[in-house]
Amino acid sequence: MQVLRALAAFMVAVHHVQPDAAIVAERAGLAFARNDMLPWMAGVDIFFVVSGFIMVHASQDLFGRQGASLAFLRRRLARIVPLYWAMTTLFLLVGLAVPALLNSGAPSLGQVLGSYLFWPAVSTQGVVQPVYSLGWTLNYEMLFYALFAVGLLLPARWTLPAVALALALLVAAESLGGPTPLPFAFWGQPIVLEFAAGMGIAVLRGRGLRLHGAARIAVAAAGVAVLVAAAHVPGTDGGWSSVLWRGSAALLLVLAASCGREGIVPLLPVKALAAVGDASYALYLVHPFVIRGMREASLRVGLAWPALYIVLALTGAVVAALLLHRCFERPATRLARRWLGG
């Protein structure tokens, strides 16, 4: 599962590095063609299915327990808030110091507050996203956490059906009766159903589903095949079509990753990827800073090879994520848990 998280974060980084590589190539007078062998932003779909799975798998001790809802929220806030607030603050500081490095105008106070509070708001570019645009996924995550916390107030057997039903009702309200006003228009996008898919996989695993040998390989291969097809079939970028293609691929990949046999000793390369998976949240949030910083450095030194720039930028993003995870994210999470009493 950690390897899959690493690959998901890396896919998003590959998506974001290519426009900057095009700028490096243009400055050097070279041609640059995007590589879209995979729908790189499908890394987000994988994250959402993984999140649904992990919330159920890691919260088994909370179902039906008194005070479970508050304990769950404390855990999730301690895990998500410190690093995201730090990256949002860094983004704002960079915007103040070097506005030309950013692709957006100065946000209003309301937009800044909405960003820190994970509340969907229209940005200066006219789209619903926080000032640090990658946080749009975290706005969805916080919706899911809030619904999950409410579900934990119910008897254990009702928790997951209630959460899945709430997600489905939000989507139905927007798809059948919309457009609805914010924040419901944002929360009602089909992508939120991927959380429910992840929860379903966790239930199946909890009931003993295991994939062995060829079956597991076949499921993983099917997930990759669907991803490749999604990159080449026209019309797979819409709200529902994206979920059907990329969400289905994510479901298959998470199913293969989570329902294998236990007790297998991983090989060294797998352990290395798992370490990156541990830092996948940091990689997701820090890679734009590294990519843009490496672009500016490359332009200043006259680097003329966009392929080399991509390698350096992605390598730098992984190294920065590992350092950030160890030196900031883990200590900050422990400190937040102490403050929140979790």
Explained architecture:
This protein is an all-alpha fold and 342 residues long. The protein has one domain (2-260, 267-340). It has 13 helices and no strands. The chain is globular and about 60 Å long. It starts with a helix and ends with a helix. The model has no long low-confidence stretch (mean pLDDT 93).
User: How many strands?
Assistant: 0
Domain module tally = 1
Beta-strand content bin: under 5%
Structural class: mainly alpha
* Global morphology: globular
**Spans with pLDDT under 50 lasting ≥5 residues?**
none
Q: Span from first to last CA?
A: 25 Å
Secondary-structure element string: HHHHHHHHHHHHH
The DSSP helix count reads: 13
Average residue-wise pLDDT: 93
Radius of gyration: 20 Å
Biggest sheet: strands, sense, closure? none
The residue fraction in helices comes out at: over 70%
Layout: helices, strands, pairs:
Elements: H1 2-27, H2 42-57, H3 68-97, H4 109-116, H5 136-151, H6 156-177, H7 184-187, H8 193-206, H9 213-232, H10 239-258, H11 268-278, H12 280-301, H13 306-340
Helix pairs in contact: 1-2, 1-11, 1-12, 1-13, 2-5, 2-8, 2-10, 3-5, 3-12, 3-13, 5-6, 6-8, 8-10, 9-10, 12-13
Task: Briefly say what this structure is.
The chain crosses the membrane at residues 38-59, 80-101, 113-132, 144-172, 184-204, 213-231, 243-260, 272-291, 303-324. With 342 residues, the protein is an all-alpha fold. The protein has 13 helices and no strands.
Which labels suit this protein?
mainly alpha; 342 residues
